[in-house]
Amino acid sequence: MTEKTGLKRLGFVKNLKCNEKGYNCISKLSKLIGREIQLDEIDRFVDSSDFKQEFIDQNGNTTNEATAIGFRFKLPWHTTEEEEIYGHFRKENSAFTGVTWGKKNPTTAIDIRKYGFINSKCWSKLCSMSGKEISEKNIGDFLTSKIEYYNGAGHTKFPSGEPVSKETGKFIKFTTNLSCEGGFIVGWFTKNIRGKYEGISWGLDVDFKAAQKLREQFYVGQMIFDSIDECNDFFVKLEKNIIPEPWEYKKRKEEKYKYPILKAYLQFELDRLFHEQEELRRDYKIVFSENKDKILFNTNLLDKFGHDLIIVGDHIEISNRAYITNLEISPSKKRLRILGFDSSKDPMPPSFFEDINEIIFHGNWEIDQDMKAYEHIIEQRLERFPEKYQKLPADILASKLDNAIDLAKRIAQRNYKFIVPMYYPEIKKIQLLMPIYLEGLYSSIPDFALVLKPDPSENLYTPKTILGLDEVYQDARLIAKPEESWLKAMIKSDD
User: What is the pTM for the complete model shown?
Assistant: First the structure.
């Protein structure tokens, strides 16, 4: 085998080939110098006695090769501004990779936000781990590898050899030159259930591998189960231990879940509790054990003996977001003390509203039946109308909707419970559900529900969208068990 010479003998030169824009490390150096330079010029210098190589540590100080995170070397050429130019190689997986050109100790600017949503808490964790002041503005100074996409198995390529991309990946990972507990800190974004990347999580490679394993588990909001079977077993047990109530739809869209209404209820109750604790700064919504390894919360359900039903579980963090796993129903006071909880700090149930008027329909308020609202409902959500109405002209549908709204208002003036409040988890707000009977007949089953957004400052309701009855019950159930017959039409009886 021919011995490598010149630039290639220093390590793997990953940017020697031109990228899609036609640039490589040679063309970038030529731009810095202000004239075209050839690879053989660089090679002759590297192989000459003038070439001096400095191995550097994470702080940019010289060190030996064994402990180095990279090396640099000074070039004999200068920039167009007469500044010195250094070449830089970084250690990746025990091998040196390069090459980049710049100052002796370059400052690397990087728009880290373009890769995903960043939880602001991540920077304090990185500072604590590294013992340095690091933020979004200077994180580029500490990166030692390019940002790479990983699949769920922790590889940058699939078995077919196809590279993992932003679309097919589950993680975005990068390595830093920051050390912690004898290893280098890595950072990663994790793709959430909505297909968006969020982060940044920090740890060692062993922590990244643990995150990959967690990614394979079954998530229900901020609850984690080993499998869907474990999830179903948990909700079956939960249902048996609470006051009887219907938690099943008559017709299922998805057969794999047990008690889908109860599952959605607990998922969004917990989401609300975290929102109140972290964003609204309300105490005792989420209670942590003394060493923060356990979480305790109030489900806002009553057990079969009429007591508050609470749940405890292990606390873990993913992308700087708290999750709970190994859930345990109704632990005793003694058990909680053993787990490290302060018995004087009982978890509080969620609060969805401050004033009772927020969840009551006000018949004297107007409903803003403007063109944009109707465009969305009739033109963009036509598939949610019963099939027999979908071929009607838009103006005929609008007229039927107008009449149905008037009917609902008249009924609500005589029955304040007829229009039902719901909690919309995406925006963390209360909205109202108005049943719509397009034929103008008050039957037991409406065609769908009209979602109304209240505006107390204007005494006005704005129609936002329409939802099928199988969608709205679980959102209404977050606030209270619905008693209106129209809303229970799709639910199995609890008789």
Answer: 0.67
